[in-house]
Amino acid sequence: MQFGDSREGDAFVHSDRFQSVKTAAYEHLLSRIEELGAEFGRWTRAAIQEFVDIEVAGFVRLRRVAINEAEMRLVSESLTKELAGLGPLEDLLSDPAVEDVLINGYDNVFVSRAGVLAREQLRFSDNQHVLRIVRRILAPLGRRLDESCPMVDARLPDGGRLNVVIEPLAVDGPMVSIRKFRQDPLKPADLLTLGTFDESIYALLGAAVRARCNILVSGGTSSGKTSLLNALAFFVPERERVVTIEDTAELSLNHPHVVRLESRQGGFDGGGAVTIRELIRNSLRMRPDRVVVGEVRGAEVMDMMQAMNTGHEGSMATIHANSARECLYRIEMLAGFAGYQGSEDSLRRQIASALDFIVQVGRLSNGKRRVLSITEVTGMGDNVIATQELYRHETVSTPEGEERDRWVSLGIHPHTPKLAKFRDEMRASNAGAPSDDGGGGGGFWGRRR
């Protein structure tokens, strides 16, 4: 027997009746599993599914539970996920459209799809149910989560990231944040198709990476920094050796010669910790052509600047900041936290000589992720780091009321000598191209999306 309408099945799964039947059947299964002992641990998922089907059918018959065959099948499927998988999270984690899963207590679950966060009907039985699933995820990772260690940050086997905070730090039950990452990283052409940037920016970023420009990708949380950094790696020549350094390994560079390093948290007594700063210092002894830091957030900023200034050109990193100028201020602030002893002028000269471009990314109100600006760091002037904005994102409305993305070029060519060839090509391209907006600048530098 099947539900005439799948919505009937959904309504049952999200009902209190389903939760009560499932909880009672789960207790029954646990008693049967206890009788089986170690034998149950050797069963395949198919064997567990068959066992659950038989036991749930027997439970419903003996207890005279008023559910039909289709509802009983839904209970069996859910319990199989509980015993052999990740319970209510299993379907979400296997859904390629899901980007983030956020659990704020057992009955308050939010899911992000295409950059838009929405409440999910999915729920757990109680907070202990959430903890049971989380500990099942953490068990093979060797990470601890209890009252003495109520906060954990871990990398999942599929490359995702798990963060959990429990009582006494979390007031309203377990706070679980799961960030998923694509198994097949987006290529620059994919981002172009998705509208993250236009052809002009595609050409500039490709030329900048191949010419070994140092690039900082700046933006807020979930703005697409890591995805863009992954995409930029497609432009790195195959003959080069790339070392990636991260707090929690998230980067998945599509490159034949990548060395991945990940920091390590300290043990219960704080010993054994290995910081990103130590990894950057060690990476310079590993003969890297480029160093890629997943996120600069602390004292490691000075070591990153040193690497960019001492022969490791073409290095890249991400940083949390709301604009290119704020990004520079943040670097100065982090250098101060790192105990930098030199003068303000000396620090700014180091930053100016290390960085070539700051790519600002952001998530718009409609959930779309876009490159908001590309700013070139050109040097020092009047004790201030001099910059020039090459592109700026704008949203325009058509007469039909449709919103369109547009990247405005200010008609300025890149200043860095590394892009001399690219600059000459653009000038040659513009020389014979008519202006498309009447304001000067055609060809690559005047295109609009």
TrEMBL record:
Residues 437-449 have a biased composition (Gly residues). GO terms for molecular function: ATP hydrolysis activity. Pfam families: T2SSE (PF00437). CDD domains: VirB11-like_ATPase. Residues 83-361 form the Bacterial type II secretion system protein E domain. The keyword Hydrolase applies. It comes from the Bacteria. Keywords: Hydrolase. Residues 427-449 are annotated as: Disordered. SUPFAM superfamilies: P-loop containing nucleoside triphosphate hydrolases. Transmembrane segments: none annotated. The keyword Heme does not apply. Belongs to the GSP E family. This is Type II/IV secretion system ATP hydrolase TadA/VirB11/CpaF, TadA subfamily.
